User: Which sequence fits this backbone?
């Protein structure tokens, strides 16, 4: 085994003067484990947030609660719980059109990419406003919605406070 193979974990096979570089089996197992872990984690976060939004919909007397289980429709339920319009969800359209624009023209793709980024920012602003109003409707401080902006840990902190708002009946003082 060569020094390069030991350092990189790659197995180099020389057959008939062609060079094939194959990843070692441990690297493949690590990648598979990582993908399974990410999938299970994403599924757990999805189920947790759907349960939290369903509980918040019950607390705010918003129907239909089953929208919490449908990924894009979840935005409609969040907007309804905040008693605001659901139409900012239409900002997702440029993101969907981004893929076909890649096959039409590179210039069009760049333009659509800029538009999609601006729409994502606008939708993000509405997302925080909606959550601010939802937290206030269940007698929690609205600034909890901004905790998702904390780098690295913000998503976890936001999910914890979403759960507190959904399943804690005590009023915040």
Assistant:
């Amino acid at each position: 085994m060569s020094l390069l193979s030991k350092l990189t974990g790659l197995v180099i096979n020389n057959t008939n003067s062609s060079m094939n570089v194959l990843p070692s089996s441990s690297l493949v197992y690590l990648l598979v484990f990582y993908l399974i872990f990410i999938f299970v984690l994403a599924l757990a976060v999805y189920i947790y947030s759907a349960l939290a939004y369903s509980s918040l919909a019950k607390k705010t007397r918003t129907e239909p609660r089953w929208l919490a289980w449908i990924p894009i429709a979840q935005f409609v339920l969040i907007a309804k719980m905040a008693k605001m319009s659901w139409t900012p969800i239409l900002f997702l359209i440029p993101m969907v059109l981004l893929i076909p624009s890649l096959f039409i023209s590179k210039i069009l793709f760049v333009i659509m990419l800029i538009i999609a980024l601006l729409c994502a920012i606008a939708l993000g602003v509405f997302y925080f406003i909606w959550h601010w109003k939802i937290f206030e409707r269940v007698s929690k401080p609205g600034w909890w919605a901004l905790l998702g902006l904390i780098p690295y840990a913000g998503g976890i902190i936001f999910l914890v406070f979403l759960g507190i708002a959904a399943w804690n009946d005590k009023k915040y003082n």
